[in-house]
Design a protein that fits this description.
The chain is an alpha/beta fold. The protein folds into three domains: 1-47, no CATH class; 50-206, Alpha-D-Glucose-1,6-Bisphosphate, Chain A, domain 3, CATH 3.40.120; 220-290, no CATH class. Helices cover 42% and strands 12% of the residues. The longest helix is centred in the N-terminal third of the chain and has 17 residues, at 70-86. It is globular, with a radius of gyration of 21 Å. It starts with a helix and ends in a 6-residue tail after the last helix.
């Protein structure tokens, strides 16, 4: 318990985020007063760092090294930048995207600032964007890496950090272990010692046009276009781009599940925004039956 309290007090001095500082201040006060739940949460949050693996980082939002927050993300960015430099990629372009989850845009900006200060050429995509579009952007812009702040289909209060290499692929062993070691090294420094710069580029529209232009070439000219289909964005960020891609390829626009079409970090109609979860696509299936659709 005393070790967790000491670690939490040290963390407070480093945390640049007003919200997580307030959360941790309250958690510390409650734990010091003997509140059982607060003690357990504090010990969990400071039990050890989030493990970086082939899917990057993923975990609940909150203060502490075992949570997703600005301190953890800044150190992850510094570690990944150091690893790329070791691989001879120093100074290269890095594309950075994010979804519509809580704090995703903040984490993406932190990443862009760290990479800019490390001598790379970051391109921050300034609208919530589907992960495959960012992976496409790696090759399109000739990047040495890509980063997406997303927790995919995890619960609403989670977030994550996915990294891609210069060929647009996710990392594989032992690369994950090597990057994790650099993140651990970056974590030995005070956060204020990690350099930052706002000298990075931003973009969005040109990337979307390029992605849709490439996607429509994958559809055969003689492929049947008459199809009735239902689409649910499941509160994610795919709705607008899916419609644009369908239209560009000559397909009718899908019938949207209206209550799930707009990005919403609370994911109000689903517990897990994962189509494989029981009940997750019930609204889409019901709409498909109502409209005699061919496809969901």
């Amino acid at each position: 318990m005393q070790a967790s309290l000491a670690a939490a007090r040290a963390w407070l001095k480093d945390d640049p985020d007003e919200q997580t500082r307030a959360q941790l201040t309250k958690l510390l006060a409650d734990a010091e007063s003997g509140a059982t739940e607060a003690i357990a949460e504090l010990q969990n949050a400071f039990a050890g760092p989030l493990q970086f693996g082939t899917a990057g980082l993923r975990g609940p939002l909150g203060p502490g090294p075992a949570r997703m927050n600005r301190v953890v993300v800044t150190r992850a960015a510094a570690g990944f930048a150091a690893w790329l430099t070791q691989q001879g990629a120093a100074g290269g372009k890095v594309i950075i995207g994010y979804d519509a989850r809580y704090n995703s845009d903040v984490f993406a900006r932190d990443t862009a600032e760290v990479f800019a200060a490390a001598g790379f050429q970051p391109l921050l995509i300034v609208e919530p964007t589907p992960t495959p579009v960012i992976a496409f952007g790696i090759g399109h812009y000739g990047c040495v890496a890509g980063i997406v702040v997303t927790a995919s289909h995890n619960p609403p209060l989670d977030n994550g950090y996915k990294v891609y290499l210069g060929d647009g692929s996710q990392i594989a062993p032992p690369t994950d272990v090597e990057i994790a070691a650099e993140i651990a090294r970056a974590s030995e420094s005070r956060l204020s010692e990690i350099p930052r710069s706002t000298s990075y580029e931003t973009g969005y529209n040109e990337l979307i046009r390029a992605y849709i232009g490439r996607a429509k070439t994958l559809v055969a000219d003689d492929a049947p276009r008459e199809i009735k289909w239902v689409y649910s964005a499941m509160h994610g960020v795919g709705g607008k781009i899916v419609d644009q891609a369908a239209d560009a390829a000559g397909f009718p626009v899908g019938i949207p599940v209206a209550s799930q079409q707009q990005p919403d970090p609370a994911f109000p109609t689903v517990s897990f925004p994962n189509p494989e979860e029981p009940g997750a696509i019930d609204l889409a299936l019901a709409l498909a039956r109502q409209n005699d659709a061919d496809l969901v």
